[in-house]
């Protein structure tokens, strides 16, 4: 797997690169800003670009904009955006157009090398990755009427894991149940919430996230 890393903070960038290289991931470029990343991707597209969401010159959403441009021009390149902040709106912006092979992870999460490596590998495989903290925040939002009240405890667990982008198999492993049981729960969740079920994982992630944002 070939990866590029775009992060303007040197220590964070070096930490990410070291974790990846220790896991035998081929880091083919390390850059400090979005323009340099776009140039490198144009010259030699990687499998995945790991991108800080806030980079020079304005430190607002340069990484997010770069990720969108990469997905438009190089759809085979996965993008994993890293942020210090819980920003569901940014996550939805990233996933709305090209949810497959895209992820949004909080930087606090990557202090665990296993989490970073898992996210990079999932994005490289075309999956969707959403930070659990964002999902928890969306699930916990106060509403005048809570449509999630119709779900059982286990169905809420399944909904949360769906929103994180896990496959049926991964959900089954996490909950220690069979895939058939997971399929049954998913069908029930989508039925109760009035969501049209889509067999592709990334589309159903979008459906769940859009519902949770309401």
Q: Brief description of this entry?
A:
With 214 residues, the chain is an alpha/beta fold. The protein is 52% helix and 14% strand.
Describe it for me?
Strands 2-1-3-4-5-6 form a six-stranded parallel β-sheet, sandwiched between helices. The chain is of the alpha/beta class and 214 residues long. It has helices spanning 10-22, 34-43, 62-73, 88-97, 113-124, 132-139, 153-163, 168-175, 179-193, 201-213, and strands at 2-6, 26-31, 48-52, 78-83, 102-106, 128-130. The radius of gyration is 17 Å and the shape is globular. The model has no long low-confidence stretch (mean pLDDT 90). It has two domains: 2-128, 3-Layer(aba) Sandwich (Rossmann fold), CATH 3.40.50; 136-213, Arc Repressor Mutant, subunit A (Orthogonal Bundle), CATH 1.10.10. The chain contains ten helices and six strands, in the order βαβαβαβαβαβααααα.
Instruction: Please count the beta strands (DSSP E, at least 2 residues each).
Output: 6
Structural class: alpha/beta
- Low-pLDDT stretches: none
- Would you tell me the overall average pLDDT? 90
Helix-strand sequence? EHEHEHEHEHEHHHHH
Question: What is the CATH H-level superfamily of the largest domain?
Answer: Response regulator
Outline: globular
Tell me the strand percentage band. Answer: 5-15%
Helix content: 40-55%
CATH class of the largest domain: Alpha Beta
**What's the gyration radius in Å?**
17 Å
Please work out how many helical segments DSSP would assign. Answer: 10
What is the domain tally? 2
Main sheet overview: 6 strands, parallel
Distance between the termini: 37 Å
The CATH architecture of the largest domain would be 3-Layer(aba) Sandwich
CATH topology of the largest domain: Rossmann fold
**Reading side by side through the largest sheet, how are the strands ordered?**
2-1-3-4-5-6
């Amino acid at each position: 797997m070939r990866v590029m890393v775009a992060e303007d903070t040197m220590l964070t960038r070096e930490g990410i690169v070291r974790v990846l290289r220790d896991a035998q991931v081929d880091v083919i470029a390390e850059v400090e800003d979005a323009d340099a990343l776009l140039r490198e991707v144009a010259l030699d597209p990687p499998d995945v670009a790991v991108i800080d969401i806030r980079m020079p010159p304005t430190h607002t959403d340069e990484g997010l904009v770069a990720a969108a441009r990469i997905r438009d021009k190089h759809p085979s390149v996965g993008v994993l955006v890293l942020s210090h902040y819980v920003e569901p709106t940014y996550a939805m912006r990233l996933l709305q157009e090209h949810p497959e092979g895209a992820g949004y992870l909080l930087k606090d999460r990557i202090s665990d090398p296993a989490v970073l490596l898992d996210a990079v590998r999932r994005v490289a495989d075309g999956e969707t990755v959403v930070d659990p903290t964002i999902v928890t925040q969306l699930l916990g939002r106060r509403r005048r009427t809570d449509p999630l009240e119709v779900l059982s405890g286990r169905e809420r667990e399944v909904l949360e894991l769906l929103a994180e982008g896990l496959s049926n198999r991964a959900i089954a492993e996490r909950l220690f149940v069979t895939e058939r049981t997971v399929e049954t729960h998913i069908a029930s969740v989508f039925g109760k919430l009035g969501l049209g079920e889509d067999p592709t994982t990334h589309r159903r992630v979008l459906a769940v996230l859009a519902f949770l944002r309401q």
